[in-house]
Amino acid sequence: MALHLSSSSLIFLVSFFLLLSNGFSSSSSRRSIHHRRHLHNHNYKDALAKSILFFEGQRSGKLPPKQRMTWRSNSGLSDGSALNVDLVGGYYDAGDNMKFGFPMAFTTTMLSWSLIEFGGLMKSELPNAKDAVRWATDFLLKATSHPDTIYVQVGDPNMDHACWERPEDMDTPRSVFKVDKNNPGSDITAETAAALAAASIVFRKCDPSYSNLLLHRAIKVFAFADKYRGPYSAGLAPEVCPFYCSYSGYQDELLWGAAWLHKATNNPTYLNYIKANGQILGADEFDNMFSWDNKHVGARILLSKEFLIKKVKSLGEYKEHADSFICSVLPGASSSQYTPGGLLFKLGESNMQYVTSTSFLFLTYAKYLTSARTVAYCGGSVVTPARLRSIARKQVDYLLGDNPLKMSYMVGYGPKYPRRIHHRGSSLPSVAAHPSKIQCHDGFSMFISQSPNPNVLVGAVVGGPDQNDQYPDERSDYGRSEPATYINAPLVGALAYLSRS
Asked: Where is the signal peptide (predicted)?
């Protein structure tokens, strides 16, 4: 589709003039942008700082002296002992006390991508953002320290979810689960490789030795993922389903992992791998959703840069695929749904993850298109980088309070935000306030209470409102009231861009 239009002189002229008028702001568009900023009046820098601070509230392990989320304490200090390995550290995925490797790795990749694209705009928050990445990569290095074995989960999810207790008190089994040659997991393994490779770029200049360690591990982990193929939920279904089943298969992660290793190494081996395996791995399948489970769209956006900016002609199809994704989620597209208040709506549970990931991709793709001085094509229409940025900004503004309820869906941002989030540590008194242990079932009295959470998990973005822009603010409504690391990770990059001035 884009191929035909790009050969049209008429479309070329329209694209050129639209790019001039939208991509390189005229005085009138600058006035319009100024008006929007004045109208929304959001403090993106404050939101950025809080979106990063959130990760400190999700930390597992021994907390550092400079821990800023001070109502949290050490937890999970014996993690890994069930298999005689050190798996202390990392992040709890959401409002529970589980360490699921699949979403943690994706969170790490997206945090790293946020820094790669927009880290230069983070200014004083850049060290905190790097700390957030390192807290994850330190754990992923532990999880991949044994050859041909990846430790992918700590904790028994069914028993964990049967309790409402602080991570500092948890007494449910800290079972350890792994993938290996006999029970492969190409999806979680390739995502881990992507995370390590992306993070190696983050630390390349500031900590070269750590960067090299991450990259060398990424190469080994990806080789294992590719050699021993299969979805990790096939062998670990009782442990990972329905929590983080690999619904989309493992092919998308192999493409995604190869794309990140190509970016991190510039080794032609990975480019050749992508050329040879792209179609087999679903490169040309239609997807209009990007999440911890499905990475096809992210891989297409990432690889489109190679075509747009580095002029790798063999990857031209990825620009077309990226355009197709953009077109499929634009307001008004038949394949997209928006709430009456204007929020992108994909699924009833944890919908905000799709809002933040899509907003990040829009801003990142707009950056690539601007650098290449081109646009996206949707049939006979042209979509400029400026329009992509405008759509992304509106989504972030909705999240921050420009919505029918006038509520920020980021905890601690603005005067009105969720007070009863589905989060054990936030909803129960801290160890400092209540030193004695809160037993497994005793915490449910707070779970059913209408009292606000005693500990503010600053920066946490909850699942968000329903398709009618309604939000009940109930702990029991986990689909809407539970925060998660993979909701925040792409938002960090989006807020960094929006906070640039």
From this structure: 1-23
Q: Amino acid identity of 465? A: P
CA 356 to chain centre: 8
pLDDT for position 56: 98
Segment (H or E) for 176? strand 176-180
Residue 482 designated active-site:
yes
CATH number at residue 334: 1.50.10.10
* Known catalytic membership, residue 191: no
Can you list the residues of the chain whose pLDDT is less than 50? 1-39
What is the span of the domain harbouring residue 148? Answer: 2-498
User: Which is catalytic among the residues 117, 253, 293, 473?
Assistant: 473
Q: How many domains does the chain have?
A: 1
Per annotation, catalytic residue among 165, 422, 423, 469? 422
Take residue 452 and report the two structure tokens written for it. Answer: 């606000």
56, 96, 402, 482: which one is catalytic? 482
For 67, residues 6+ apart whose C-beta sits below 8 A from its C-beta are: 56, 59
Q: What is the pLDDT of residue 35?
A: 34
Give the Cβ contact number of residue 470 at 10 Å. Answer: 12
DSSP-assigned letter for residue 433: T
E strands, 2-158, are: 99-100, 149-154
Among this protein's residues, is 422 annotated catalytic? yes
pLDDT at position 287, please? Answer: 84
C-alpha R_g of the chain: 22
- pTM here? 0.91
